[in-house]
Amino acid sequence: MWGVTLYRFLAVALLALLCLVNPSLAQNDSSGSSTDASTESTPTASSNESSSAASQSSDDGSTSSESNSSGGSSSDDPTPTDDDSSGENSSDSSESSDDETGVQGTVSLLTPNYETIPTPMFAIGEQIVLGWNYSSDTTNPPENLSICGRFPTGSSAATDPSVLCNWYIAQNISGSLRNYTWDTVTEGAPGVAFFEDTGYMLYFFDSDYGVSNSSPGAGRITPSQFWFDMYLSRYGQTNNGIPAGYNPSAATAVVIHAWTVAIGIALSVICVMA
């Protein structure tokens, strides 16, 4: 009987011990699981925070982009301008365009008259009177006018074909003048004498724009050119053989005698009767 009782007591004690041990193990397992779960959840939270930061950054970027886009749109809007200022600029631009593309003036040679004598001849060593006028299109006449000459193309004096002015007849004279006397002795090419030939060229041009500027602007004279020839006058050589100082008005008068007249009449009568 005591053996059965002891057995039962030991069995109860063992069960009681097992009951005390199991809750402790369960609590330890629960604590470990909770720690693992916490460890696993921490990266997730960090990931969520990173994702949230990235989303916020994206939102900020989007907001900034919209702001920039809005700013760009604002800068593209035309700035209001004063209507009067715009009109003045337009007018200035129009005047500038007209000045560059409008009708230009020309020079007409009146003395000698180039219309009736298309290629006048000038005597070497003489003074040549030149007269001119501007066409009606010359609304801006030159303040200073220049006149120059060019030797015939191909002659020994025309060493550089690209040079238009081999000598100046008049340089920077008043644009209000309408005539000029050219002295062919003193106003010629330095070191080069004039020679008989055809194909000389005369240029009239605005000194402020030059002889090579063919488009000085509307109302201004474009360089005008005129052909002419030069020759040697031999008028002084036509009286060869006449004594120096001879004056035909100072010659001795011829005396006619009466008997000379009578003889002449008698001879005339004889010839008629015969």
Largest β-sheet summary = 5 strands, mixed
Number of DSSP E strands: 8
Terminal residue distance? 233 Å
H-E string: HHEEEEEEEEH
State the oligomer.
single chain
Spans of at least 5 consecutive residues with low confidence: 32-88, 90-98
Tell me what portion of residues adopts beta-strand conformation: 15-25%
Radius of gyration from CA coordinates? 60 Å
SSE-based structural type: alpha+beta
Shape: rod-shaped
Percent range for helical residues?
A: 40-55%
Strand order of the largest sheet: 2-8-7-4-5
Enumerate how many helices there are, as a single number.
3
Compute the average pLDDT: 75
List keywords for this structure.
274 residues, alpha+beta, 40% helix, five-stranded mixed beta sheet, three-stranded antiparallel beta sheet
Summarize the structure.
This protein is of the alpha+beta class. It has helices spanning 2-76, 83-101, 258-273; strands at residues 107-111, 121-123, 127-134, 144-150, 167-174, 179-183, 197-206, 224-231.
